[in-house]
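Tokens for chain A. Residues wanted.
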């Protein structure tokens, strides 16, 4: 069959159009696959710290928590913790470890409190804090201590006078999930949490593993699983309460590890000064599935669970906390600003749509539930005692604050339906120390969640560039 002139022209036009179409299609594909923004998104979705889905034993999605925390809570609560009421806490760092000989004290140069020479101490420090034990012979390597890691004990005279007034606003503490308040102990001292931020001190390996090993193996409920894990074996418990106990501890452990990775002490470059900053490689080592028996993402997920528990406690206690004066006594204007900021935070916590439901716990047979609750309480109280075995004073300080925060949250959640009515009958009370610890502990969890997003961005950029610094330095 022969084609006419028109047929030849028609086929030519058709072929030309087809070639143009295929060329445009290939161009579209090429443009799509090389779009840098889409490449970053794809890599970000592949990052092990890109978490999604619902938090275990809760009905709240991680994506929702990220948005709520990073944009509504974190920037706000960070500023609130700078206020006088929240920055000072009274802690006894001299308690004796009840579980084993205290063989790790001052074993690290960047952790200890004691100064080497009395004349090197600031005058106000000598006046208010110098104790007889400072006359003991200092460690041999004390003069080499790095000031970036030491606990800062110095408090202004104005602050010290205000502490005397605070006592008028506190009363005796009820039994709780924690050891009795350090404020009732004569050997306790006030510490400024702003001057002593939680960050990497070098306290790790055998001493740190011994602490967490005692928490998971000796004080948690029996479970089976991978014994090599620093987080203890993942529970295979059908009992909801026992699973939740593990997740609370695991979430707290994760939060502390994230802080250490986010504020890591890097050695100075080319002889320059040491500096603090995020360490991507350390974050990977602690949470990447390849180095954690595939458990790292679950540990990160447990952080969100602990966050939800403390957020729920703050929301439940909101009617009680609204009546607090948040009195620091240093500045009336500061006190008023603090109270207003607290009310804003309480409103945000109360507005959260997917709170943890504590009523699902300790149900069933009343006698069995009561027994389980008492065991739950006793085991957590033992964890607060283990904090006295931490060899690094700065780690001990923040360990006490954060375990007390979680213990206070549990006290609130299991104090009945109406805290206000219980308080009116003198059946419920929160000391200033408990309130300060609760808010600072929650602020730490909030910061950890925001830092996970930061590490996600750093890892994504590292993958995009195909390289990264060995220590994750910025």
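Reply:
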């Amino acid at each position: 069959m022969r084609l006419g002139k028109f047929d030849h022209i028609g086929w030519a036009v058709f072929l030309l159009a087809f070639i143009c179409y295929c060329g445009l299609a290939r161009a579209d594909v090429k443009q799509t696959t090389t779009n840098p923004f889409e490449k970053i998104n794809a890599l970000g979705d592949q990052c092990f710290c890109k978490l999604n889905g619902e938090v275990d034993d809760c009905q709240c999605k991680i994506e929702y928590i990220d948005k709520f925390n990073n944009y509504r809570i974190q920037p706000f609560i960070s500023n609130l913790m700078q206020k006088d009421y929240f920055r000072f806490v009274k802690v006894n760092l001299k308690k004796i470890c009840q579980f084993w000989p205290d063989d790790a004290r001052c074993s690290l140069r960047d952790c200890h409190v004691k100064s080497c020479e009395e004349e090197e101490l600031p005058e106000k420090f000598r006046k208010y804090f110098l104790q007889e034990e400072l006359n003991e012979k200092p460690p041999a390597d004390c003069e080499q201590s790095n000031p970036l890691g030491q606990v800062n004990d110095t408090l202004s005279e104005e602050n010290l006078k205000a502490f005397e007034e605070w006592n008028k606003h506190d009363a005796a503490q009820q039994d709780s999930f924690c050891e009795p308040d350090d404020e009732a102990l004569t050997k306790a001292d006030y510490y400024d949490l702003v001057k002593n931020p939680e960050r990497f001190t070098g306290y790790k390996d055998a001493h740190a593993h011994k602490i967490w090993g005692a928490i998971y193996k000796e004080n948690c409920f029996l479970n089976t699983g991978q014994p090599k894990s620093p987080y203890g074996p993942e529970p295979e418990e059908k009992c909801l309460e026992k699973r939740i106990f593990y997740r609370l501890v695991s979430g707290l452990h994760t939060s502390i590890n994230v802080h250490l990775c986010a504020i890591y002490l890097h050695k100075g470059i080319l002889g320059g000064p040491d500096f603090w900053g995020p360490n991507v490689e350390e974050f990977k080592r602690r949470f990447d599935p390849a180095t954690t028996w595939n458990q790292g993402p679950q540990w990160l997920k447990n952080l969100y669970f602990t966050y939800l528990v403390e957020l729920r406690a703050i929301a439940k206690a909101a009617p009680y906390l609204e009546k607090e004066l948040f009195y620091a006594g240093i500045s009336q204007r500061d006190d008023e600003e603090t109270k207003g900021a607290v009310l804003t935070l309480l409103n945000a916590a109360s507005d959260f749509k997917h709170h943890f439901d504590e009523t699902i716990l300790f149900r069933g047979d009343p006698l069995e539930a009561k027994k389980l609750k008492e065991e739950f309480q006793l085991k957590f109280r033992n964890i607060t005692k283990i904090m006295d075995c931490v060899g690094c004073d700065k780690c001990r300080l923040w360990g006490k604050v954060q375990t007390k925060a979680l213990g206070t949250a549990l006290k609130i959640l299991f104090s009945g339906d109406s805290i206000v009515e219980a308080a009116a009958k003198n059946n419920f009370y929160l000391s200033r120390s408990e309130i300060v610890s609760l808010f600072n502990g929650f602020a730490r969890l909030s910061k950890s969640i925001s830092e996970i997003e930061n590490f996600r961005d750093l890892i994504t950029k590292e993958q995009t560039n195909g390289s990264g610094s060995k220590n994750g330095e910025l």
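The radius of gyration is 27 Å. DSSP finds 16 helices and four strands in the chain.
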